[in-house]
Amino acid sequence: MPHDHHEPEDIHNNLSPSGHPYRTDDDTPLSYWQVMEISVRELLAEKGITTAREITAQIDKMDARSPINGAQVVARAWCDPQFYAALMNDASTATRDMGFDIGALKLIAVENTDDVHNMIVCTLCSCYPRNLLGLPPDWYKSRAYRSRTVREPRSVLAEFGVTFPSSTQIRVHDSTADMRYIVIPKRPIGTENMLQNDLVGLVTRDSMIGTGLAITPSTIIEERQTP
Amino acid sequence: MQKVRVKPLMPPGHVRTPAYLRGKIGIIERSLGTFPNPEALAYGVAASDLPLHRVRFTMSDVWEGNAENPNDTLDAEIYEHWLEPVDAT
Amino acid sequence: MNNAKNSPNDHSPTFKLGRRWHDMGGDTAGPITMEQLADTNHDFSLWEKRVDALMIIGSAKGFFTVDGLRRVLEDLGEDAFETMTYYERWIMAVNQNLIEGGAYTTADLAAKMSQVAARGDTYGDAAAPV
Fold first, then answer.
1. Which residue of the set A125, A142, A147, A155 is catalytic?
2. How confident is the model at residue A3 (pLDDT cuts 50, 70, 90)?
3. Which one of A6, A128, A155, C64 has the lowest number of neighbouring Cβ atoms within 10 Å?
Protein backbone atom coordinates (compact mmCIF):
# COMPACT_ATOMS: atom_id res chain seq x y z
CA MET A 1 0.00 0.00 0.00
CA PRO A 2 1.55 3.32 -1.01
CA HIS A 3 2.40 5.70 1.79
CA ASP A 4 3.08 9.34 1.24
CA HIS A 5 5.82 10.08 3.73
CA HIS A 6 5.45 13.79 3.22
CA GLU A 7 2.05 13.69 4.87
CA PRO A 8 2.52 15.50 8.16
CA GLU A 9 0.37 13.01 10.02
CA ASP A 10 2.82 10.21 9.28
CA ILE A 11 5.06 11.46 12.07
CA HIS A 12 2.33 10.38 14.44
CA ASN A 13 2.86 6.76 13.69
CA ASN A 14 5.89 6.89 15.96
CA LEU A 15 6.36 9.81 18.30
CA SER A 16 4.44 12.92 19.16
CA PRO A 17 6.29 16.26 18.84
CA SER A 18 6.76 16.19 22.59
CA GLY A 19 8.39 12.79 22.28
CA HIS A 20 5.62 10.64 23.72
CA PRO A 21 5.18 7.31 21.99
CA TYR A 22 1.68 6.69 20.76
CA ARG A 23 -0.01 3.51 21.77
CA THR A 24 0.38 0.95 19.04
CA ASP A 25 -3.05 0.66 17.56
CA ASP A 26 -1.99 -0.04 14.01
CA ASP A 27 -1.71 -3.80 14.37
CA THR A 28 -4.78 -4.58 16.46
CA PRO A 29 -7.98 -5.70 14.70
CA LEU A 30 -9.82 -2.82 13.09
CA SER A 31 -12.88 -1.80 15.13
CA TYR A 32 -16.21 -0.45 13.91
CA TRP A 33 -15.53 2.84 15.71
CA GLN A 34 -12.11 3.19 14.12
CA VAL A 35 -13.74 2.69 10.71
CA MET A 36 -16.17 5.46 11.63
CA GLU A 37 -13.35 7.80 12.70
CA ILE A 38 -11.41 7.23 9.46
CA SER A 39 -14.59 7.71 7.43
CA VAL A 40 -15.64 10.92 9.19
CA ARG A 41 -12.14 12.35 8.84
CA GLU A 42 -11.88 11.52 5.15
CA LEU A 43 -15.40 12.80 4.40
CA LEU A 44 -14.65 16.11 6.10
CA ALA A 45 -11.49 16.44 4.02
CA GLU A 46 -13.31 15.52 0.79
CA LYS A 47 -16.04 18.08 1.52
CA GLY A 48 -13.38 20.75 2.08
CA ILE A 49 -14.35 21.19 5.73
CA THR A 50 -10.93 20.31 7.14
CA THR A 51 -7.52 19.02 6.04
CA ALA A 52 -5.11 16.39 7.31
CA ARG A 53 -2.79 19.23 8.23
CA GLU A 54 -5.42 20.96 10.33
CA ILE A 55 -6.20 17.74 12.20
CA THR A 56 -2.51 17.12 12.86
CA ALA A 57 -2.06 20.68 14.09
CA GLN A 58 -5.00 20.26 16.46
CA ILE A 59 -3.56 17.00 17.85
CA ASP A 60 -0.19 18.70 18.37
CA LYS A 61 -1.86 21.59 20.15
CA MET A 62 -3.68 19.23 22.51
CA ASP A 63 -0.54 17.14 23.09
CA ALA A 64 1.33 20.26 24.13
CA ARG A 65 -1.15 20.91 26.94
CA SER A 66 -0.31 19.26 30.24
CA PRO A 67 -0.52 19.82 33.99
CA ILE A 68 2.87 21.55 33.79
CA ASN A 69 1.06 24.57 32.34
CA GLY A 70 -1.16 24.77 35.38
CA ALA A 71 1.81 24.18 37.69
CA GLN A 72 3.52 27.23 36.18
CA VAL A 73 0.40 29.29 36.82
CA VAL A 74 0.22 28.11 40.44
CA ALA A 75 3.93 28.67 41.13
CA ARG A 76 3.67 32.19 39.80
CA ALA A 77 0.57 32.85 41.89
CA TRP A 78 2.56 31.76 44.96
CA CYS A 79 5.42 34.15 44.16
CA ASP A 80 3.88 37.16 42.44
CA PRO A 81 1.16 38.99 44.42
CA GLN A 82 0.09 41.06 41.43
CA PHE A 83 -0.35 37.97 39.28
CA TYR A 84 -2.16 36.23 42.13
CA ALA A 85 -4.64 39.11 42.30
CA ALA A 86 -5.13 39.07 38.53
CA LEU A 87 -5.64 35.29 38.57
CA MET A 88 -8.26 35.38 41.30
CA ASN A 89 -10.03 38.24 39.50
CA ASP A 90 -10.04 36.67 36.03
CA ALA A 91 -8.14 33.43 35.63
CA SER A 92 -8.68 33.16 31.86
CA THR A 93 -7.13 36.55 31.16
CA ALA A 94 -4.30 36.01 33.64
CA THR A 95 -3.28 32.64 32.15
CA ARG A 96 -3.66 33.95 28.61
CA ASP A 97 -1.48 36.95 29.48
CA MET A 98 1.11 34.50 30.81
CA GLY A 99 1.31 33.11 27.27
CA PHE A 100 -0.84 29.98 27.43
CA ASP A 101 -2.99 29.22 24.40
CA ILE A 102 -6.17 28.28 26.26
CA GLY A 103 -8.59 29.02 23.42
CA ALA A 104 -12.08 29.88 24.61
CA LEU A 105 -11.54 28.40 28.09
CA LYS A 106 -13.36 30.34 30.82
CA LEU A 107 -11.41 29.65 33.96
CA ILE A 108 -12.04 30.35 37.65
CA ALA A 109 -9.23 29.89 40.17
CA VAL A 110 -10.21 28.78 43.66
CA GLU A 111 -7.67 28.93 46.43
CA ASN A 112 -6.94 26.55 49.27
CA THR A 113 -6.17 28.11 52.64
CA ASP A 114 -5.67 26.87 56.19
CA ASP A 115 -9.46 26.79 56.55
CA VAL A 116 -10.72 25.86 53.08
CA HIS A 117 -9.99 23.02 50.68
CA ASN A 118 -11.46 23.11 47.17
CA MET A 119 -12.25 20.14 44.97
CA ILE A 120 -13.50 20.02 41.37
CA VAL A 121 -15.93 17.57 39.77
CA CYS A 122 -18.34 17.43 36.85
CA THR A 123 -21.35 15.30 37.77
CA LEU A 124 -23.15 15.67 34.42
CA CYS A 125 -20.26 14.71 32.12
CA SER A 126 -16.55 15.28 32.64
CA CYS A 127 -15.87 18.98 32.09
CA TYR A 128 -12.23 19.76 32.79
CA PRO A 129 -9.90 22.72 32.07
CA ARG A 130 -8.37 20.71 29.21
CA ASN A 131 -7.13 23.78 27.34
CA LEU A 132 -4.78 24.48 30.21
CA LEU A 133 -4.12 21.10 31.90
CA GLY A 134 -4.57 18.70 28.98
CA LEU A 135 -6.99 15.78 29.07
CA PRO A 136 -8.48 14.62 32.38
CA PRO A 137 -7.35 11.49 34.22
CA ASP A 138 -9.47 8.32 33.96
CA TRP A 139 -10.81 8.55 37.50
CA TYR A 140 -12.16 12.06 36.86
CA LYS A 141 -14.51 10.57 34.26
CA SER A 142 -15.50 7.57 36.40
CA ARG A 143 -18.96 6.92 37.80
CA ALA A 144 -17.47 6.66 41.28
CA TYR A 145 -15.86 10.10 41.24
CA ARG A 146 -18.73 11.84 39.46
CA SER A 147 -21.40 10.34 41.71
CA ARG A 148 -19.79 10.45 45.13
CA THR A 149 -17.77 13.67 45.20
CA VAL A 150 -20.80 15.92 45.72
CA ARG A 151 -22.18 13.76 48.52
CA GLU A 152 -19.12 12.45 50.34
CA PRO A 153 -16.10 14.48 49.28
CA ARG A 154 -14.16 13.52 52.39
CA SER A 155 -14.52 9.81 51.71
CA VAL A 156 -13.39 10.36 48.13
CA LEU A 157 -10.42 12.44 49.31
CA ALA A 158 -9.47 9.68 51.73
CA GLU A 159 -9.22 7.26 48.80
CA PHE A 160 -6.63 9.65 47.37
CA GLY A 161 -4.85 9.62 50.72
CA VAL A 162 -5.93 13.14 51.67
CA THR A 163 -7.71 13.85 54.96
CA PHE A 164 -8.77 17.04 56.70
CA PRO A 165 -10.15 17.83 60.17
CA SER A 166 -13.85 18.73 60.22
CA SER A 167 -12.82 22.33 60.96
CA THR A 168 -11.45 22.61 57.43
CA GLN A 169 -14.30 23.47 55.09
CA ILE A 170 -14.42 21.37 51.94
CA ARG A 171 -15.78 23.31 48.98
CA VAL A 172 -16.87 21.12 46.11
CA HIS A 173 -17.33 22.81 42.73
CA ASP A 174 -19.58 21.04 40.25
CA SER A 175 -18.62 22.25 36.73
CA THR A 176 -22.18 22.22 35.46
CA ALA A 177 -22.03 24.88 32.77
CA ASP A 178 -19.60 27.23 31.03
CA MET A 179 -16.82 27.75 33.58
CA ARG A 180 -13.88 25.48 34.30
CA TYR A 181 -11.93 25.45 37.55
CA ILE A 182 -8.37 25.22 38.77
CA VAL A 183 -7.49 24.79 42.44
CA ILE A 184 -4.57 26.86 43.71
CA PRO A 185 -3.14 24.46 46.30
CA LYS A 186 -1.53 25.72 49.49
CA ARG A 187 2.15 26.46 49.14
CA PRO A 188 3.98 23.84 51.21
CA ILE A 189 5.49 25.05 54.46
CA GLY A 190 9.25 25.44 54.28
CA THR A 191 9.37 26.45 50.60
CA GLU A 192 9.61 30.19 51.33
CA ASN A 193 13.11 30.43 49.90
CA MET A 194 12.47 28.36 46.79
CA LEU A 195 12.40 30.06 43.42
CA GLN A 196 9.31 30.11 41.23
CA ASN A 197 10.85 27.74 38.68
CA ASP A 198 11.68 25.18 41.37
CA LEU A 199 8.20 25.41 42.87
CA VAL A 200 6.63 24.30 39.57
CA GLY A 201 7.75 20.73 40.26
CA LEU A 202 5.81 20.64 43.53
CA VAL A 203 2.44 21.29 41.86
CA THR A 204 0.81 18.02 40.83
CA ARG A 205 -2.16 17.58 38.51
CA ASP A 206 -4.25 16.22 41.38
CA SER A 207 -3.41 19.21 43.56
CA MET A 208 -5.01 21.43 40.91
CA ILE A 209 -8.17 19.27 40.85
CA GLY A 210 -8.22 19.20 44.64
CA THR A 211 -7.74 15.46 45.12
CA GLY A 212 -4.12 16.01 46.12
CA LEU A 213 -1.83 18.51 47.83
CA ALA A 214 1.27 20.21 46.54
CA ILE A 215 4.38 18.14 47.25
CA THR A 216 6.51 19.03 50.23
CA PRO A 217 10.12 18.55 49.07
CA SER A 218 11.80 15.61 50.79
CA THR A 219 14.72 17.78 51.87
CA ILE A 220 12.29 19.90 53.88
CA ILE A 221 10.70 16.83 55.44
CA GLU A 222 14.16 15.56 56.41
CA GLU A 223 15.12 18.90 57.95
CA ARG A 224 11.96 18.94 60.03
CA GLN A 225 12.56 15.43 61.27
CA THR A 226 16.12 16.26 62.30
CA PRO A 227 16.24 17.82 65.78
CA MET B 1 -26.57 37.83 49.19
CA GLN B 2 -29.50 36.66 47.12
CA LYS B 3 -31.09 33.46 48.36
CA VAL B 4 -32.46 31.28 45.58
CA ARG B 5 -34.22 27.98 45.13
CA VAL B 6 -33.47 25.72 42.18
CA LYS B 7 -36.77 24.94 40.50
CA PRO B 8 -37.88 21.38 41.23
CA LEU B 9 -38.61 20.56 37.58
CA MET B 10 -37.93 17.28 35.86
CA PRO B 11 -38.16 17.79 32.08
CA PRO B 12 -36.84 15.31 29.54
CA GLY B 13 -33.94 16.26 27.30
CA HIS B 14 -30.64 18.05 27.68
CA VAL B 15 -30.36 20.39 30.65
CA ARG B 16 -27.36 21.45 32.76
CA THR B 17 -29.05 21.68 36.14
CA PRO B 18 -28.15 18.58 38.16
CA ALA B 19 -31.11 16.69 39.60
CA TYR B 20 -29.56 16.49 43.08
CA LEU B 21 -29.80 20.29 43.39
CA ARG B 22 -33.38 20.69 42.21
CA GLY B 23 -35.63 22.04 44.93
CA LYS B 24 -32.58 23.06 47.00
CA ILE B 25 -31.91 26.51 48.43
CA GLY B 26 -28.58 28.28 48.14
CA ILE B 27 -27.09 31.74 47.74
CA ILE B 28 -25.72 33.36 44.61
CA GLU B 29 -21.95 33.32 45.13
CA ARG B 30 -21.29 35.32 41.97
CA SER B 31 -22.95 36.07 38.66
CA LEU B 32 -21.06 35.15 35.54
CA GLY B 33 -22.74 37.15 32.79
CA THR B 34 -24.81 35.64 30.01
CA PHE B 35 -24.28 32.49 27.99
CA PRO B 36 -26.26 30.88 25.15
CA ASN B 37 -28.96 28.59 26.47
CA PRO B 38 -27.52 25.03 26.40
CA GLU B 39 -31.04 23.61 26.27
CA ALA B 40 -31.37 25.16 22.79
CA LEU B 41 -27.76 24.69 21.66
CA ALA B 42 -28.13 20.95 22.24
CA TYR B 43 -30.77 20.73 19.52
CA GLY B 44 -29.12 23.09 17.03
CA VAL B 45 -31.82 25.74 17.31
CA ALA B 46 -31.35 29.45 17.98
CA ALA B 47 -30.19 29.95 21.56
CA SER B 48 -30.91 33.11 23.53
CA ASP B 49 -28.37 34.42 26.04
CA LEU B 50 -29.25 33.63 29.63
CA PRO B 51 -27.72 34.91 32.86
CA LEU B 52 -25.63 32.28 34.61
CA HIS B 53 -24.98 32.27 38.34
CA ARG B 54 -22.72 30.36 40.66
CA VAL B 55 -24.92 29.18 43.49
CA ARG B 56 -23.42 27.99 46.79
CA PHE B 57 -25.22 25.40 48.88
CA THR B 58 -24.19 23.95 52.20
CA MET B 59 -24.03 20.17 52.30
CA SER B 60 -26.82 20.25 54.87
CA ASP B 61 -28.94 22.26 52.37
CA VAL B 62 -28.42 19.52 49.82
CA TRP B 63 -28.31 16.28 51.81
CA GLU B 64 -30.14 17.34 54.96
CA GLY B 65 -29.52 14.84 57.75
CA ASN B 66 -27.35 12.66 55.54
CA ALA B 67 -24.65 15.25 54.95
CA GLU B 68 -21.13 13.93 55.45
CA ASN B 69 -20.12 17.24 57.04
CA PRO B 70 -22.95 19.82 57.20
CA ASN B 71 -20.72 22.89 56.87
CA ASP B 72 -18.92 21.79 53.74
CA THR B 73 -20.24 23.53 50.64
CA LEU B 74 -21.16 22.80 47.09
CA ASP B 75 -21.01 25.37 44.28
CA ALA B 76 -22.66 24.88 40.90
CA GLU B 77 -23.41 27.07 37.90
CA ILE B 78 -27.14 27.38 37.36
CA TYR B 79 -28.88 29.31 34.56
CA GLU B 80 -31.25 31.95 35.78
CA HIS B 81 -34.40 30.37 34.34
CA TRP B 82 -33.85 27.47 36.76
CA LEU B 83 -33.76 29.79 39.80
CA GLU B 84 -36.49 31.46 41.81
CA PRO B 85 -35.80 34.04 44.50
CA VAL B 86 -36.42 33.06 48.12
CA ASP B 87 -37.52 35.99 50.26
CA ALA B 88 -35.51 36.54 53.41
CA THR B 89 -37.67 35.66 56.40
CA MET C 1 -38.66 22.28 56.18
CA ASN C 2 -37.39 21.00 52.92
CA ASN C 3 -39.93 18.82 51.15
CA ALA C 4 -38.79 15.41 50.07
CA LYS C 5 -41.13 15.90 47.13
CA ASN C 6 -39.34 16.97 43.96
CA SER C 7 -35.93 16.47 45.50
CA PRO C 8 -33.34 13.70 45.19
CA ASN C 9 -34.98 12.21 48.26
CA ASP C 10 -38.22 12.02 46.34
CA HIS C 11 -38.84 8.48 45.24
CA SER C 12 -42.03 9.32 43.37
CA PRO C 13 -42.37 8.00 39.83
CA THR C 14 -42.10 11.55 38.43
CA PHE C 15 -38.67 12.01 39.88
CA LYS C 16 -37.34 8.55 39.21
CA LEU C 17 -38.55 8.48 35.62
CA GLY C 18 -37.46 12.04 34.95
CA ARG C 19 -33.95 11.79 36.25
CA ARG C 20 -31.58 10.77 33.51
CA TRP C 21 -28.76 8.24 33.80
CA HIS C 22 -25.89 10.67 33.17
CA ASP C 23 -27.09 12.98 35.93
CA MET C 24 -25.32 10.91 38.58
CA GLY C 25 -24.34 13.42 41.27
CA GLY C 26 -25.11 12.01 44.70
CA ASP C 27 -25.61 8.42 43.59
CA THR C 28 -24.01 5.70 45.61
CA ALA C 29 -21.10 4.09 43.80
CA GLY C 30 -18.10 1.99 44.64
CA PRO C 31 -14.61 3.26 45.43
CA ILE C 32 -12.29 4.86 42.91
CA THR C 33 -10.48 1.78 41.65
CA MET C 34 -6.73 1.29 41.59
CA GLU C 35 -6.99 0.90 37.84
CA GLN C 36 -8.63 4.30 37.49
CA LEU C 37 -6.06 5.84 39.82
CA ALA C 38 -3.29 4.32 37.71
CA ASP C 39 -4.72 6.28 34.80
CA THR C 40 -3.53 3.79 32.23
CA ASN C 41 -5.49 5.25 29.35
CA HIS C 42 -4.02 8.69 29.66
CA ASP C 43 -1.78 8.31 26.63
CA PHE C 44 -4.45 7.95 24.01
CA SER C 45 -3.94 6.16 20.74
CA LEU C 46 -3.76 7.98 17.43
CA TRP C 47 -7.33 7.22 16.41
CA GLU C 48 -8.60 8.56 19.73
CA LYS C 49 -6.57 11.75 19.36
CA ARG C 50 -8.06 12.14 15.92
CA VAL C 51 -11.57 11.83 17.34
CA ASP C 52 -10.69 14.54 19.83
CA ALA C 53 -9.37 16.77 17.03
CA LEU C 54 -12.48 16.17 14.89
CA MET C 55 -14.63 17.17 17.84
CA ILE C 56 -12.73 20.46 18.30
CA ILE C 57 -12.59 21.23 14.57
CA GLY C 58 -16.25 20.39 13.88
CA SER C 59 -17.27 22.59 16.77
CA ALA C 60 -14.93 25.45 15.80
CA LYS C 61 -16.39 25.42 12.27
CA GLY C 62 -19.90 25.75 13.59
CA PHE C 63 -21.30 22.32 12.74
CA PHE C 64 -22.28 21.62 16.33
CA THR C 65 -21.80 22.72 19.91
CA VAL C 66 -20.53 20.83 22.93
CA ASP C 67 -24.13 20.68 24.11
CA GLY C 68 -25.10 19.00 20.84
CA LEU C 69 -22.46 16.35 21.53
CA ARG C 70 -23.56 15.96 25.14
CA ARG C 71 -27.18 15.53 24.02
CA VAL C 72 -26.19 12.57 21.82
CA LEU C 73 -23.96 11.07 24.52
CA GLU C 74 -26.81 11.33 27.00
CA ASP C 75 -29.30 9.86 24.54
CA LEU C 76 -26.94 6.93 23.87
CA GLY C 77 -27.94 5.77 27.31
CA GLU C 78 -26.34 4.16 30.28
CA ASP C 79 -25.52 0.94 28.50
CA ALA C 80 -23.21 2.78 26.09
CA PHE C 81 -21.48 4.48 29.03
CA GLU C 82 -20.72 1.09 30.53
CA THR C 83 -19.79 -0.82 27.38
CA MET C 84 -18.18 1.68 24.98
CA THR C 85 -14.90 3.49 25.55
CA TYR C 86 -14.79 7.24 25.94
CA TYR C 87 -13.71 7.97 22.36
CA GLU C 88 -16.01 5.34 20.88
CA ARG C 89 -18.88 7.31 22.36
CA TRP C 90 -17.36 10.57 21.17
CA ILE C 91 -16.94 9.53 17.53
CA MET C 92 -20.55 8.40 17.54
CA ALA C 93 -21.67 11.78 18.90
CA VAL C 94 -19.42 13.73 16.53
CA ASN C 95 -20.70 11.77 13.55
CA GLN C 96 -24.34 12.21 14.45
CA ASN C 97 -23.88 15.95 14.98
CA LEU C 98 -22.04 16.31 11.66
CA ILE C 99 -24.90 14.59 9.83
CA GLU C 100 -27.44 16.75 11.64
CA GLY C 101 -25.32 19.80 10.81
CA GLY C 102 -25.28 18.94 7.11
CA ALA C 103 -21.55 18.19 6.76
CA TYR C 104 -22.33 14.99 4.86
CA THR C 105 -25.17 12.52 4.51
CA THR C 106 -25.77 9.09 5.96
CA ALA C 107 -25.41 7.74 2.42
CA ASP C 108 -21.96 9.39 2.15
CA LEU C 109 -20.99 7.76 5.42
CA ALA C 110 -22.35 4.34 4.47
CA ALA C 111 -20.35 4.30 1.25
CA LYS C 112 -17.18 5.55 2.93
CA MET C 113 -17.37 3.11 5.85
CA SER C 114 -17.77 0.17 3.55
CA GLN C 115 -14.81 1.36 1.48
CA VAL C 116 -12.63 1.93 4.57
CA ALA C 117 -13.50 -1.44 6.10
CA ALA C 118 -12.42 -3.17 2.90
CA ARG C 119 -8.90 -1.72 3.03
CA GLY C 120 -7.55 -4.15 5.59
CA ASP C 121 -7.82 -5.75 8.98
CA THR C 122 -5.90 -3.25 11.07
CA TYR C 123 -6.19 0.46 11.76
CA GLY C 124 -2.84 0.99 10.07
CA ASP C 125 -4.09 -0.58 6.82
CA ALA C 126 -7.49 1.09 6.87
CA ALA C 127 -6.24 4.56 7.80
CA ALA C 128 -3.44 4.68 5.26
CA PRO C 129 -3.94 7.08 2.37
CA VAL C 130 -5.26 5.22 -0.65
1. A125
2. very low
3. A6
